[in-house]
Automatic annotation (TrEMBL):
This is Protein FAR1-RELATED SEQUENCE. Pfam families: FAR1 (PF03101), HTH_FAR1 (PF26175), MULE (PF10551), SWIM (PF04434). It is found in: Nucleus. Putative transcription activator involved in regulating light control of development. GO terms for cellular component: nucleus. One of its GO terms (molecular function) is zinc ion binding. Residues 14-42 are annotated as: Disordered. Its main location: nucleus. Belongs to the FHY3/FAR1 family.
């Protein structure tokens, strides 16, 4: 209940001796129906404005009203000033209004310039305070002569009001820290995390946002973009002269200035041909040196390591630019679209994909969404944040859409999130991120939140050494071909694979799959031993031996060599699940059917290595790298038994003798010395 005194303070106050209509907009009225307004509840009379309240300056009055507004859940702005009778007597009256007062006038359309479709927050709110200048005993002061505290919109909670622009600010000390961080070339997200740690605040509780930091950095940059563009095109053309199979596309604006540019390498296009079934298009990074959006296309190879497919730099991250980027990427890859593509929660990109890649299944990167949770929910949920996050991940990993829908409703009710806009948006987009909706599509394991670490580390190799825009392009050209990922592949090849079940299927898979893919299959083989299978009329029912109900439905046609499971793990990851492996085992199957050992997970991909080495279009350094990989596989296979090692030693000795008989040119010799 509101006290009578407090209730009176919530009404519209006006000094009869100083009547003046408010009219925040033409045709607006100070009269508001109490049925469709919101009241700022503040019962402390010392902090609520009142008629006759006095201030030494109008700035002091503004500060007082601003502090009152913040406690109530809104912010204010200066609206109108008036002079005595409007005739050169100086400033005598001021109005401060709610930040949602008035309406935004429509901008005149300009055909030559793309309009930004931003929704205004103004809704004609009539809350205001009016102060008038008066003098007593020769001293000037400002007195409150009008006050209305009715709002026609929802007021924000204390943990939300701080995000209003009026209450966001970057102190001089923080500005210095941010500029120092910028010199180290770390991302804005990393800057925010460091500042949170330094100030010992929870994620999302800094008095400014990532956008504020980007605006600050942009204000300090003085880079001649035209010179950058000229250098960038020159670099790309130089690479094209050295590597004819290097591909790049660019777009110039009406002033002949570079607007967008995208590129890819011959080896990237070749990798995409085998591993381009699932792609991540990461547009969450920016080039810190010039604050331009950066997009990188990445996949995962048969050893589970990220592989680079292409890169794009955009002037603006809008629908037109993103559509152009996707068209350029398809052009690089000879029109071959991926089966699935993972992106950030970007509505422009969603529209662009629907138009340019209609056959590709679009999904959202879960790790990119989870990274935003602290700023979205930490302040809202408080101590219950970790409990909510645990429940969210449980729902995310469910298999049944029905279970997800029921669980989501219970979660929203349990945590009181019915009015939360982020929860509403997540639910509206659930078919793009929730696993129950995506398990029938192939993602090569990239939906796993843990996979983000390797992808982010891969991207940071390009970003960490960036200085200016053309240097970044050169950095990508060098870095993505370096030895880090290749050394990891060689180490994996040299691993001694330990068989855990003794099943013939296990040894068969170990001889075909890469260590990465085999480890995933081996996990399922070990778990399969804990499951029981029951033959039904239309297939098999498989469930854990401790369960009396439930289970997965497996369909097996031995003659056709076809098997499938209701959990859809093979469709999702390319690795057979424990349920199908259990049925194969009980059906006396000693080898995994050929079709369930995908080429993309095998030690040798679809193109024979001998053909790749002899390919005249492949440059010398790539041939050397191919030879490295073959030698690595040779060592891995030979070390499995004494007999194999003897055969390999004898064969390599003969091969070396033949190689030494061949002439060596000085150019080739130097190339080998540089690359081996």
């Amino acid at each position: 209940m509101i006290s009578e005194e407090a209730g009176e303070m919530l009404m519209v106050y006006d000094d009869p001796s100083n009547q003046q209509s408010l009219s925040l907009d033409d045709g607006s009225s100070t009269e508001e129906s109490h049925d469709d307004t919101r009241l700022s509840l503040e019962t402390n009379t010392d902090t609520v404005p009142y008629i006759g309240q006095r201030f030494a300056t109008h700035d002091a009055a503004y500060q007082f009203y601003s502090e009152f507004a913040k406690r109530c859940g809104f912010s204010i702005r200066r609206h109108r000033t008036e002079g005595k009778d409007g005739i050169g007597k100086g400033l005598t009256r001021r109005y401060f209004v709610c930040h949602r007062a008035g309406s935004t006038p429509a901008k005149a359309a300009n055909e030559g310039k793309q309009q930004r479709n931003r929704k205004s927050s103004r809704c004609g709110c009539q809350a205001y305070i009016r102060i008038s200048k008066s003098s007593e005993l020769g001293a000037f002061e400002w007195r409150v002569t009008g006050f209305a505290n009715h709002h026609n919109h929802e007021l924000l909670e204390p943990n939300q009001v701080r995000f209003l622009p009026a209450y966001r600010s970057i102190s001089e000390a923080d500005k210095s820290r941010i500029l120092m961080f910028a010199k180290t070339r770390i991302s804005v997200q990393q800057m925010m995390r460091l500042l949170e740690l330094e100030k010992c605040v929870e994620p999302g509780y800094l008095p400014f946002t990532e956008k504020d930091v980007r605006n600050l950095l942009q204000s300090f940059r003085k880079i001649d973009s035209e010179d950058e563009s000229i250098d960038l095109l020159r670099i790309c053309r130089n690479i094209k002269d050295k590597e004819p199979d290097f591909k790049f596309e660019y777009l110039l604006d009406s002033n002949n200035r570079l607007e967008n540019i995208a590129w890819s390498y011959a080896s990237s296009i070749e990798s995409y041909d085998v591993f381009g079934d699932a792609v991540v298009f990461d547009t969450t990074h920016r080039l810190t040196a010039i604050d331009m959006p950066l997009g990188i296309w990445i996949g995962v190879n048969n050893y589970g390591t990220p592989c680079f497919f292409g890169c794009v730099i955009l002037r603006e991250e809008n629908l037109r630019s993103l559509s152009w980027a996707l068209k350029a990427f398809l052009g690089f890859m000879n029109g071959k679209a991926p089966q699935t593509m993972l992106t950030d929660q970007n509505m422009c990109l969603k529209e662009a994909m629907a138009a340019e890649m209609p056959s590709t299944k679009h999904a959202l990167c879960m790790w990119m969404i989870v990274a935003k949770f602290p700023s979205w929910f930490n302040a809202v949920l408080g101590d219950r944040y970790n409990d909510w996050k645990e429940e969210f991940h449980r729902l995310y990993n469910l298999e049944s859409i029905e279970d997800f829908e029921l669980g989501w409703r219970d979660m929203v009710t349990s945590f009181g999130l019915h009015a939360n806009r982020h929860i509403a948006n997540l639910y509206a987009l659930r078919s793009l991120w929730a696993l129950p909706y995506l398990r029938s599509h192939f993602f090569a394991g990239m939906m796993a939140i843990g996979h983000s670490k390797s992808i982010n580390a891969f991207i940071q190799r390009f970003l960490i050494a960036q200085t200016r825009l053309p240097h970044f392009v050169e950095q990508v050209a060098v870095d993505f071909k370096d030895q880090a990922a290749e050394q990891q592949i060689m180490q994996q090849n040299l691993q001694n694979i330990n068989l855990k079940t003794g099943a013939p299927m296990e040894s068969h898979a170990a001889s075909v799959l890469t260590p990465y893919a085999f480890s995933k299959l081996q996990e399922q083989l070990v778990l399969a031993a804990h499951y029981a299978s029951f033959q039904m009329e239309d297939g098999f029912l498989v469930r854990h031996h401790t369960k009396l109900e439930g289970g997965r439905k497996v369909y097996w046609m031995p003659r056709e060599g076809i098997i499938s499971c209701s959990c859809h793990q093979f469709e999702f990851s390319g690795i057979l699940c424990r349920h199908t492996l259990r049925v194969l085992s009980t059906g006396n199957c000693f080898q995994i059917p050929e079709r369930y050992l995908p080429v993309r997970w095998r030690r040798v991909t679809g193109t024979p290595p001998s053909k790749l080495v002899q390919d005249p279009q492949r440059n010398h350094s790539e041939n050397v790298q191919m030879l490295r990989n073959m030698v690595s596989s040779l060592i891995s296979e030979s070390g499995k038994s004494k007999e194999r090692l003897e055969i390999a030693t004898e064969g390599v000795s003969m091969l070396l003798s033949r190689i030494r008989e061949q002439p060596v040119s000085s150019t080739d010799g130097n190339a080998i010395q540089r690359n081996v």
